[in-house]
Amino acid sequence: MKMKCSQVLMECLLEQGVDTVFGYPGGTILNIYDEFELHGYKDKIRHILTAHEQGASHAADGYARSTGKVGVCFATSGPGATNLTTGIATAYYDSSPVVFITCNVSENLIGKDSFQEVDITGISMPITKWQCLVRDPDQLADVIREAFAIARSGRPGPVLIDIVKNVTAAEVDFEPLPLSEHASHGRLGAMLRRASHDLKTPEPDHDDIDKLLDMIEKAKKPLVLVGGGVIRSRGAVPEFRKFFERLNAPVTSTIMGGGACPGNHPLFTGMIGMHGSHASNLAATQCDLLIAIGCRFSDRVALSPKHFAEKAKIVHIDIDRAEIDKNVKTDHHIIGDARRVLELLNEKLPAHDYPEWKEWVFSHKELDLPSVPGKLSPHEVLETITRLTQGDAIIATDVGQHQMWAAQYYHFSRPGQLITSGGFGTMGFGLGAAMGAKVGNPDKVVVHCTGDGSFRMNCNEMATEEHYNIPVITVIFNNQTLGMVRQWQNLIYGKRFSQTDLDRGPDFVKLADAYGIEGTRVSTQPEFEAALARAIESGRPYLIECAIDKDAMVHPMVPGGAKTDDFLLD
Amino acid sequence: MNTMKEVSRHTLSVLVENAAGVLSQVSRLFSRKGYNIESLAVGTTDDPEVSRITIEVLADEGSTEQIMNQLRKLFPVYSVQELLPDRSIRRELVLYKVKAEEPDIRNEIIQIANIFRASIIDVSLKSLTLALIGDETKADAMQKLLESFGILELVRTGMVALERGAYTIGDETKEKTEFNLGKNVM
Ligand SMILES: Cc1ncc(C[n+]2csc(CCOP(=O)(O)OP(=O)(O)O)c2C)c(N)n1
Ligand SMILES: [Mg+2]
Fold it and tell me: What tens digit of pLDDT does each residue of A69-79 get?
């Protein structure tokens, strides 16, 4: 079938089952945008025009994280492309599968510093799984197929495809290709054939599995640490639950592992690391076997890599070989897809119990959370959200104290329920990501927990949620400060609050109103509860501004570089 | 992490897709780790779609291992192997342009070239250009001798290397299957 490459791109998206694209047009990508009208692709693919390319990038990411599908994002050349970079990096650090499609100037203008020409494939090299500049019209279909295959395979991640403008106008012969053949076709097929003799995901090594089962038999104080890998691996969560319940040992989680183990499960010790619970961090120092699944021992988890789980044999299960021994030296590893590794373990693992060990671990309680009458405490906000959404909402966060409070106090029970920038810590991620999650999950309540600092960064996307009626509920924890930074200044920098006061506008409720969104300001728990009920009821985007004490802290806190039992703040 | 911090020379052989941008992707990983590439040689292989990059770098064991791990994750990278000194052969081509204005000096230089089995590839009234194939010990020794005559210019191709015997970089290992998982398509 002869058609222009702009249409080929649309056909390739349909081949992948893409129904939503987040993006922003411009000169070089005009041919592609024209297809929505010219050949009516707008009826098959919903395009959401955001206020800013960064918002589009986070929305595609949030869509991917909350649905398990590949997110798609369009942008034009030059500033359009560079506006994506924070979003690309955010997706990369949390292994989120997103295909970014940008266009570049035409072939005859490439390399001449032409208007809005930028080497976006070069710029995105360190923050994508793969990137490709398409200069040959005949390659386009295969490159798009490869992009999706790469984004979702193995350890998922973002891919960037940059297409020169004249290619989008060129006519080629397009032949549909069944999904199952995409990876063995074209350039990727040739690459993979050269790289290996087997295109299938290799089976985890059965001897490695047996060795872990052996180690489990010898352990007296095992601890399970779950990370985002279990969230990303399709079907892994039920296997994971079977595994830790049969092992009957304490389970802790990184922020990215939130939802792998239900937050209210009796074996769950809470989050680990800098703002991890006492039980989790103390269990890590005392355990004799640490089974880490799909995590990467980041510096926010293994605060001091040398001393992390010092007394334990560390076993690392991961799909990415390059993660093994990268941050923490391990005693054993199993390479494989988390679901498959857990399946194999479950086939042979007998039921265990560690009553004394568990009693010790769970004897470490958190500080009593203060509730001051007439004031609103962070935990009350989250407890109220939990109650009114029956723990079923998708929570998208920005970055700061509010993010940690959300991770600590909302009980997540399924993958894709906590949407947060764990690896890159991107302030401004939340609203776009929440919109993406809501578009992908129209029947779920989506709550966007944000800070006054973070919200100010990308609040322009209120225009998008209003226009498309994407009913995200934004809850601003307004402490009038860059709270997380202030916390460090409070504890480590002698209370010198350099440049962290946000004692300034805007009036968020008025701002929401200007965007056509209803908003309320609350300062007590009952007010918040009423506002949230109204927001859920309204079925429209909604903004609730919560007055939070400026010096409210995230408890507990272990500073970076310290041993995990070295609490700076209980 | 428990890495040996002793810095030594490591020779890595990398098979990559013969395409634009791949070389910069590979070299980027070294600069990110703060390592200066001592020597780098690229060329196509028996398969015109595949290039082989030989990289020499001064690094400690742990970091070399990590760079190799990261390299293997790149889609256009097909294989990565460290070529250990005692199990591989390494050669580079060095061209020396030496000042040679008087006949007896010219003769002396030719004698040195003969001892090193270097060839004379260009002669002018004022200079001689020699080509030497060898490893860095041989190249450095020759350079020392020629310095007394005055080296006008010197250029090295960068080291190329292969494993001794019939083994090839494509031979299956468990390591390799493990890596396929990180990037392969299910
Ligand atoms: C884009 C970006 N810039 C700066 C930072 C550093 N940073 C981390 S948390 C934080 C404060 C966030 O303030 P706010 O959104 O009000 O959240 P709070 O901590 O007060 O809940 C800052 C500035 C960041 N993570 N991301
Ligand atoms: Mg704040």
Answer: 999 999 999 99
Kindly state if the Cβ of A453 falls inside 6 Å of ligand 1. Answer: yes
Q: How large is the ipTM?
A: 0.86
Taking the C-alpha atoms of residue A523 and residue A541, their distance in angstroms, rounded to an integer, is 20
What pLDDT is recorded for position B76? Answer: 87
Question: What radius of gyration, in Å, describes the C-alpha atoms of chain B?
Answer: 20
In this prediction, residue B179 has a pLDDT band, given cuts at 50, 70 and 90, of low
Residue A413: count other Cβ atoms within 10 Å of its Cβ.
Answer: 17
Q: A–B: how many Cβ contacts below 8 A?
A: 109
Q: Domains along chain A?
A: 2-194 (3.40.50.970), 206-362 (3.40.50.1220), 378-547 (3.40.50.970)
Instruction: Encode pLDDT of A434-486 as tens digits.
Output: 999 999 999 999 999 999 999 999 999 999 999 999 999 999 999 999 999 99
Q: Which amino acid is at B34?
A: G
Ligand closest to A427 (CA) is 1
In A398-445 the beta strands, taken as DSSP E runs, fall at: 418-419
Is any atom of ligand 1 closer than 6 Å to the C-beta of A400? Answer: yes
Number of the ligand closest to the Cα of A399: 1
Q: Is the CB of residue A483 below 6 angstroms from any atom belonging to ligand 1? A: yes
CB A66, CB A442: distance < 8 Å: no
Assess contact for A250 and A361: CB atoms under 8 A: yes
Hey, is A292 helix, strand or coil? strand
In a domain, B119, yes or no: yes
Are B50 and B75 in the same domain? yes
Is residue A170 within 8 Å of A130, Cβ to Cβ? no
Report chain B residues whose CB lies below 8 A from the CB of A305. 1
Averaged pLDDT for residues B105-131: 95
- Contacts of residue A433, defined as CB under 8 A and 6 or more positions apart, other chains included, come to A58, A59, A61, A62, A65, A396, A419, A421, A448
B95: confidence class by pLDDT, cuts 50, 70, 90:
very high
Nearest-10 crossing angle of helices B174-183, B61-73: 50
* Count: domains in chain B: 2
Which of A405, A427, A429, A431 most suits a substitution to test ligand 1, by most atoms within 8 Å of the C-beta? Answer: A427
Instruction: Give the Cα separation of B20 and A262 in Å (integer).
Output: 47
Give the residue, out of A382, A484, A550, A554, with the most ligand 1 atoms within 8 A of its beta carbon, to mutate for a pocket test.
Answer: A484
* Cα-Cα-Cα-Cα dihedral sign, residues A435, A394, A231, A407: positive
What b-and-e string marks burial along A3-41, b requiring 16 or more CB atoms within 10 Å of the CB? ebbbbbbbbbbebbebebbbbbbbebbebbbbbbeebeb
